[in-house]
Amino acid sequence: MKARLERDAFAEAVHTAADATPNRPSVPILAGVLLATTDTGVNASGFDHEVSSQSWARGTVTDPGRVVVAARLLAAITKALPHKPVELASAGTHLELVCGSARFTLPTMPVEDYPALPDLPATVATADAVTLAQAISQAGIAAGRDDTLPMMTGVRLEFRGDTLSLLATDRYRLAHRDITITPTDPNLNANVLVPAKVLTDAAKTWGAGAVEVSYDPDGYGLVGFAIGHRKTTSRLLDGANYPPVRTLFPAAYPSAAVVPVGPLIEVVKRVALVAERTTPVLLTFTNGGDTVVVEAGGAEEARASEALEIGSYSGQDTLTIGFNPQYLIDGLSSLATANAHIGFVDAFKPAVISGADDDGQPIPGQRYLIMPIRVTR
């Protein structure tokens, strides 16, 4: 192998591939990133038998070839390189990397031991990359982190014609986002459960353009995403018994508030400084009032409170409801609007956060349900 590459593109490709390599590989070869030349550059690939990632760096290839190099080491090196072209040259069992006056000699692994990367399944739809990446970010925040409950660590993708719904829950909150897609079959009707980490990591690498979404529920049960020269595949999670989470959204909200997103986030962050890990922040609304009082702490502990001017509140005369502060911040931060609409049933049932339009009404297509924490006062 011999190639000359753009430094930033090469570093980004290597980091994307390295993110797909396992921290504790079952076999040593999986700790490596595969570098393979193309006519116009080099592909960098990472694989752990569950997730594969392929990225491309533009360059000039004078001698085609393939090498496998330790992923973490190569990623650290490329991040630290000066902003000059990168020259790669394989020599026996080593790879020479030169960038400006910096020179590295890295041992290579047996390329014949590297497993074959899975092919992308058949494309079922295309979506705007920016819109899909935003939807993944908004839904993925509610996915669980507990690997002992793998079903809760996924984002459920529901394909219904030209609509893709993304749903995720960790049992304490639930995020739902709808976007418009272009299906290859107008009667597309399918559900797949994708690891949330795979989705969020892949979405961070997308730029503008169209993402091809593919899946194969049979066979190896793969889902794939491709945009330009970037490709990601992942095994699907078993979603056969995924709970009917849509039924958790209340049919109506007797009480509702319109609140400014940014200022409320800042107030919650300040007040939560005195809250212990399991201590909620309390939000108190008064019917007809134009403020919400945010409080945290107790009689025997540090306490904090702050009032914030809001757009409106109507419903129960006085409503005090407690939330996990980070869950509340996550839900508010996921919105792309200046104001949020928060619907309440009562202090003991889930509240639903949505973006608010100019009239203070919830914007359809994105909802974030958050379970309250019972408090006694």
Short description, anyone?
This protein is 17% helix and 43% strand.
Write structural notes for this entry:
This protein has 377 residues and is α+β, with helices and mostly antiparallel strands. Helix content is 17%, strand content 43%. Strands 14-10-11-12-26-25-24-18-22 form a 9-stranded antiparallel sheet. It has an 8-stranded antiparallel beta barrel with strand order 1-4-3-2-5-8-7-6. α3 (129-140) packs antiparallel against α4 (196-203) and α5 packs antiparallel against α6. The mean pLDDT is 92.
Average of per-residue pLDDT values: 92
Total beta strands: 26
Under CATH, the topology of the largest domain can be stated as DNA Polymerase III, Chain A, domain 2
Helix fraction, binned, reads: 10-25%
Q: What count of structural domains?
A: 3
Give me the CATH architecture of the largest domain, please. Roll
**What is the 3D shape?**
elongated
- Count, helices: 6
- Low-confidence regions: none
Side by side, the strands of the main sheet go 14-10-11-12-26-25-24-18-22
> Termini, distance in Å?
70 Å
Look at the structure and give the CATH class of the largest domain. Answer: Alpha Beta
Taking all Cα atoms into account, the compactness measure Rg is 24 Å
Structural class based on helices, strands and sheet pairing: alpha+beta
Strand residue content: 35-45%
Describe the secondary-structure layout:
Elements: E1 2-5, H1 7-19, E2 32-38, E3 41-47, E4 51-63, E5 66-70, H2 71-80, E6 86-91, E7 94-99, E8 102-109, E9 123-128, H3 129-140, E10 154-160, E11 163-169, E12 173-180, E13 182-183, E14 189-195, H4 196-203, E15 210-216, E16 222-227, E17 230-235, E18 255-260, H5 261-271, E19 281-286, E20 291-297, E21 303-309, E22 312-314, E23 318-323, H6 325-333, E24 339-344, E25 351-355, E26 366-370
Antiparallel strand pairs: 1-4, 1-6, 2-3, 2-5, 3-4, 4-17, 5-8, 6-7, 7-8, 9-13, 9-15, 10-11, 10-14, 11-12, 12-26, 15-16, 16-17, 18-22, 18-24, 19-20, 19-23, 20-21, 24-25, 25-26
Helix pairs in contact: 1-2, 3-4, 5-6
